[in-house]
Amino acid sequence: MTPARPTAEASDARLAEALAPLRADPARTAILLDIDGTLAPIVRYADDAHVPETTRSLLIEIARRYGYVACVSGRRSSDARRIVSIGTISYIGSHGTELLRAGGIEPVLDPAVRDWGRRIQAFGRDADNAELRRLRVRIEDKGSIVAFHWRGAPDEEAARAAIDTIAGRAEQSGLRTHWGRKVLEVRPPVRMDKGAGILSFLEHAELDAALYVGDDVTDLDAFRALGEMLAEGRVRHALRVCVASEEGPSELAEEADLVVDGTDGVRHLLERLLADDPAT
Ligand SMILES: O=P(O)(O)OC[C@H]1O[C@H](O[C@H]2O[C@H](CO)[C@@H](O)[C@H](O)[C@H]2O)[C@H](O)[C@@H](O)[C@@H]1O
């Protein structure tokens, strides 16, 4: 497709044009979707996130029609599947380091992260103190990643400042830090990126086109993986879609082929992927 300057919201005509190469041969098309902020609206507590039923129904149909469908999340793959609740699609979890294939029981973990769980969890336990609890910082244990959330804390600024200190401590102890939407993740010092997870998921796929839709910094790696596949001739068409939000990084819109407006915009895009006439 011809890359276009992203607009605040994709018009229907622009959307139809962008989706045409994906719709041309669904069996040879990969549909790759981030979850939080893309399929599931952002909510105060990570545990309360859910994918609206209308979006779920569309995804079920997309899984029937398209050759390779996966949700690509910063969450553990098992949590991602619990939230989306569809067994016929695959889940690439923990920013590309876990792969739970459609119908699978156990995720396959990247060996590079496998041995880091204990150390990361110990870091999370050490960081968890009375002050963090007073500030209502919430800690999310993701196995090989520990996340510190400050969304909805009574004093978000104070909570963020306490989390800054945790980030400094993590880096001093040789761990890596990654900032997302009102969340700090402390990770092992190994490659963890959605792009690597996608390349491994699609390693043996016979593809003509690929779509990725995401809203946050971690999705840039996925955009770049699609760019790599395009440059290497592994796909003839790649469509990178940014889900616009006030919190989203500006680079995502800059690197996108198309911008849609929030999770409603994503639902509309999924409808158009299935519609008889994508322009209506
Ligand atoms: O890659 P994703 O599927 O988009 O996951 C990114 C992170 O999503 C979750 O946190 C975000 O969503 C929460 C629920 O809406 C929100 O409360 C939080 O502020 C957001 O950062 C999840 O908890 C993280 O583990 C994921 O990495």
The CATH H-level homologous superfamily of the largest domain: HAD superfamily/HAD-like
The proportion of strand residues reads 15-25%
Give the termini separation.
20 Å
Unreliable residue runs: 1-8
User: Which ions, cofactors or small ligands are bound in this entry?
Assistant: the ligand O=P(O)(O)OC[C@H]1O[C@H](O[C@H]2O[C@H](CO)[C@@H](O)[C@H](O)[C@H]2O)[C@H](O)[C@@H](O)[C@@H]1O
Instruction: Please identify the top-level CATH class of the largest domain.
Output: Alpha Beta
CATH topology tier name of the largest domain: Rossmann fold
Tally of individual domains: 2
Tally of individual helices: 11
> What's the order of the H and E elements?
HEHEHEEEHHHEEHEEHEHEHEH
CATH architecture of the largest domain: 3-Layer(aba) Sandwich
Question: Percent range for helical residues?
Answer: 25-40%
| Overall pLDDT confidence | 94
- How many runs of DSSP E, i.e. beta strands? 12
Gyration radius over CA: 19 Å
Structural class: alpha/beta
What strand line-up does the widest sheet have? 5-4-3-2-1-10-11-12
Biggest β-sheet description: 8 strands, mixed
Please state the overall shape, judged from the principal axes of the Cα atoms: globular
